[in-house]
Amino acid sequence: MAGARPPRIFRITGAAGLLVICAIGTVALLIEAAVRSGVGNMLLLAPWPLLVLWAVYVVGIASDIRADVTGVQVQNLLRRTWVPWSRVKRITMRWQIELALDDGRVVRCFGGPGRSRPRRIGPDRTREDGNGDAADGIAKLQRLRLEAESAPDAVVTRSWDWASLAALGVLAVWAATAILLTL
Predict the structure, then answer these.
(1) Which residue has the higher pLDDT, 114 or 46?
(2) What domain range includes position 109?
(3) 8 Å CB contact between 34 and 59
(4) How far apart are CA 162 and CA 11, in angstroms?
(5) 68 domain-assigned
(6) What pLDDT digit, counting tens, does each position of 90-134 carry?
(7) What is the three-state SS of the chain?
(8) Among 9, 50, 53, 133, which is 20 to 30 Å from 122 by CA?
(9) pLDDT tens digits, residue range 49-71?
(10) What spans are recorded as compositionally biased (Basic and acidic residues) (predicted)?
(11) Is residue 72 part of a domain?
(12) What is the rounded CA–CA span in Å between residue 137 and residue 148?
């Protein structure tokens, strides 16, 4: 479909900021390790903060909801689920966005806008109801669903985030090598 709009991406609020803060902290720790004990020891220490950074990436950035007029892709940690709009019966918000499918299954969206607790109010203030971003996210998903172009017999598909799994594999081998070299 030439000229199609790019998918609308919904991420966890504040995830990019947390990733930047963690990346800066990781770089600072690795530079400090290289200065104090040399590059060799820094390479032995590096997999551990990089594993933490990888976890922050997978939870905050990779876990998202991507929707266009053909359907919605939900990534929860390392698992991806593609749902064509013709299979979505209802979009609701519980603690996170949930897609009720026509076969009775529910796809819960770990990434994306979530419902937050109502904030406390002080004297002479108005009540702040819920999370406006979450309601706005559901409205945008509903609009995309109304513009749907998917066939009624389209299938729900599941897959893995192979790039993130490969990065985890590299970090795990690096960590195991570091352990073996220090024994």
Answers:
(1) 46
(2) 8-116+131-182
(3) no
(4) 19
(5) yes
(6) 998 888 899 999 999 999 998 877 665 555 666 666 555 444 555
(7) CCCCCCCEEEECCCHHHHHHHHHHHHHHHHHHHHHHHCHHHHHHHCHHHHHHHHHHHHHHHHCEEEECCCEEEEEECCEEEEEEHHHEEEEEECCEEEEEECCCCEEECCCCCECCCCCCCCCCCCCCCCCHHHHHHHHHHHHHHHCCCCCCCCCCEEEECHHHHHHHHHHHHHHHHHHHHHC
(8) 133
(9) 999 999 999 999 999 999 988 89
(10) 121-130
(11) yes
(12) 17
With respect to residue 3, please indicate whether it lies within any of the assigned structural domains. no
Picking from 77, 79, 59, 65, the residue whose alpha carbon sits closest to that of residue 141 is 65
Answer yes or no: is 124 within a domain. no
Q: How many CA atoms lie within 13 A of 122 on its CB side?
A: 0
